[in-house]
């Protein structure tokens, strides 16, 4: 059960409800690609912000193909802010660097511009011959939820979302992460950029933010005491930060 909202947040929400329409928020999902894991975060927006969830085809794995798919779904008749979660950070950065019409801001959540793990980069050759097996539950719980920091409902939703992609596609997407590097696109982005960092993230460290900040010094940072599943385990806190960012872009 979520704790009651602090008074200053209740007042802020009341203020947002009485202002003009908020900018649309377009959400790019994590490695599962389903977009289902955004549900707690969207609920925490309290209907204030119009949202669109991009859902990747289950058979697509390459960043190039997924970027093209996402590009075709972007709004063309209204301003919007793009949020790339985890795996989708490189996609969001690439799209933002193309300066599409209507884009007014970019948010990265527990994400990266290049492979966030030295050990994963070193393992890349081995990923080519690993058998495509479903990720073990214990590994998902340890890496994404830091053990018991996610509720049973959140972990069940994670398992359901992961099961909708085949092990082969998940492994291919992991290979993409192991070799990705779009850091050079960051300095071509002209819209404001917000980075949401999970302090207890076991997959993406603060170094990923620091690399982006060096390329784009104006990048804003919001930090939360949460595991990698940041939007799912801290939906109220992250939604508040996102609402403030969107409000500033109007």
Detail the topology: elements first, then pairings:
Blueprint: H1 7-17, E1 24-28, H2 39-44, E2 51-53, H3 63-73, E3 80-85, H4 89-97, E4 103-109, H5 118-127, H6 137-145, H7 152-163, H8 167-179, E5 193-198, H9 206-215, E6 220-224, H10 230-233, H11 235-248
Parallel strand pairs: 1-2, 1-3, 3-4, 4-5, 5-6
Helix pairs in contact: 3-4, 5-8
Protein name: BioH protein, putative
Organism: Roseateles depolymerans
InterPro entries: AB_hydrolase_fold, Hydrolase_4
Structural class label = alpha/beta
Cα(first) to Cα(last) distance is 33 Å
* Physical arrangement of strands within the biggest beta sheet: 2-1-3-4-5-6
What is the radius of gyration computed over CA atoms, rounded to a whole number of angstroms? 17 Å
**Biggest pleated-sheet summary:** 6 strands, parallel
Whole-number average pLDDT? Answer: 92
Number of domains: 1
**How large is the count of helical segments?**
11
The share of residues in helices is 40-55%
CATH fold title: Rossmann fold
Order of helices and strands: HEHEHEHEHHHHEHEHH
CATH architecture label name:
3-Layer(aba) Sandwich
According to DSSP, the number of beta strands is: 6
CATH top level? Alpha Beta
Beta-strand percent range: 5-15%
Characterization of the model:
With 250 residues, the protein is α/β, with parallel strands linked by helices. It has helices at residues 7-17, 39-44, 63-73, 89-97, 118-127, 137-145, 152-163, 167-179, 206-215, 230-233, 235-248, and strands at 24-28, 51-53, 80-85, 103-109, 193-198, 220-224. A six-stranded parallel sheet has the order 2-1-3-4-5-6, sandwiched between helices.
